[in-house]
Predict the 3D structure of the following.
Amino acid sequence: MAEKSKGVQNLWLLAIAIVLGMLAVVIYNVHISAIRNENKQKRIEVIKVTKALKIGANLKDNIMERAIIYTDDEGAADHYVAHDRRPALISGKGQTVYLPIQKGEFLMEHHITSRQSGGAASAISPDLPTNTINIDDSPGQLLEPGGFVNIKGLFQIKETGRYETVRILENIRVVGVGGKRLEASTMAAARNAGRAMTNFRTITVELPPELSLQLDNLKTHCIGNFTVEVLAQPKENAKKPSVNHKLKSMALSAKPPSR
């Protein structure tokens, strides 16, 4: 009887050893895969701003820190300010900021590049068109040009027939609220940067060209206007924005106008 019990115990130990061995192999493969994917991506040392800055502010060493990002975008390095430029940015009074910067945001070339001749459009990021949307429930002073939002809407989901409020796009940069826009670098812009509108029903956001068209299509499917969630700061290492998977089919075509 004791020998039989011992045999059963040995089988259990063998089974546990096999399971642990398989688990170790899985963890090892996942780790190796992560390393390979990381090696495929471009490693960039950038500057993270640790304090929100308004137009006309100056960069100081104590509000910047080194950060590392990985990206598949070959041209990304041209848009981020490299960390090795930090000494030049803090020389003298410090580099002037020409666009608002949120706490936790990475320093980009357009933050420190003066484009006064471009008027209001000079505040828009390169290669990103804008899209103006109507919203319900104005967030008031919580949202200013330069802030980030999630865009939501109420939809009837085709696959289920159910009505759901869905986050359409996340971590989207706002360049205008109501009639107030990000401005080029002028003394007037610097003085007005802190004055938020308390009530507005439209916002203007930056989106990649294909997403801008998809959002226009979704406007026709949305029940009522969009709403927004205001983010305290942009998400770090956020993926490129994309439409929520529940809305992919609707985003490809507009709803026919009612007659």
Q: What stands out?
A: Residues 117-259 form one domain. The first strand starts at residue 42 and ends at 49.
